[in-house]
Amino acid sequence: MKSPIKVAVTGAAGQIGYALLPRIASGAMFGPDQPVILQLIEVPFEKAMKALEGVAMELDDCAFPLLSGMVLTDDPKVGFADANWSLLVGARPRGPGMERADLLKENGKIFTAQGAIIDEVAAEDARVAVVGNPANTNCMIAASKARRLTPDRFTAMVRLDQNRAQSQLAKKAGVATTDVTDIFIYGNHSPSMFPAFAHAKISGKPAREVINDDAWLMGPFCEIVGKRGAAIIAARGASSAASAASSLVDHVRSLFTPGSIHSVAVKSNGHYGFDPEVWAGLPVKTTSPGAFEVITGFEMCEFAKSKIAATNKELVEERTMVADMLG
Ligand code: NAX
Question: Taking the model in full, what pTM does it have?
């Protein structure tokens, strides 16, 4: 029997947490023979901790063979202790009348604290995946607080955007989602991000040739993918939860599986013209569990360059808004 992987999850009593935890405990994230210990972190309020207890009761009731233990806590130092993976889902939602800058600052405080604590108490091989919005900038803030863990240990999720793009291309072409490959997301997890359709393939052929409708790809396709989150809220009356949880499972599983090729928001280091200091969605290849290299060399047309410039501008603006929190 392998020794368990310790997975810390913040916002564990939230709606993404509810859809995520059974997937991790069932083996979907780390494989069918890998035990896990869930270290569940919530805010120090009775209502949240009570809800967390209820979630843990349900996990008990599933009798998952791979679930070796659970820790329920409102103390991040306890929750992140020796964690191999820290999944930062919890964040403050945007309230009425709240400006983007206010949201960045409010959430910046959370990720400032969590980045420093993870650096202090998490495992030697610690990896961090940020979902709480604005995910790219929150991830940058957390990474900036680390002295022991290098920036490549901190990633943010754009996999939901990749999955949305893959599914839209499949629908348009009338094929299975598994026939669509090499669709990567560049930039921010926001409507500004760019799904680079020119490199996508459908059954091994360029998606552009198969779909044969550049006007749709450059217009409605980018729009649908970019604004899918808002469309879900309009339809469901609540933000994406099952798909976000499933995409986080994909994000971590792909980073855990050498050879996987997928989109992750990572420190850009200047690739594809991004500001070197921002966390941008980029195509990566997993080299060993938790480690990756950015796939370079994709040619960008003028349209792609302008989309990347726009999403980069937004990331730089976000960075400027939280400049006093970095380092
Ligand atoms: P919920 O409001 O249902 O749950 C959030 C939970 O986080 C709450 O239980 C809250 O008590 C907890 N929390 C807040 N601050 C915390 C802290 N400092 N430590 C521990 N727990 C804390 O939100 P949910 O729908 O689960 O969404 C969570 C986050 O994911 C939001 O920021 C949301 O914007 C973001 N999303 C990111 C996506 C992405 O692709 N990157 C897509 C889905 C989602 O919108």
Answer: 0.97
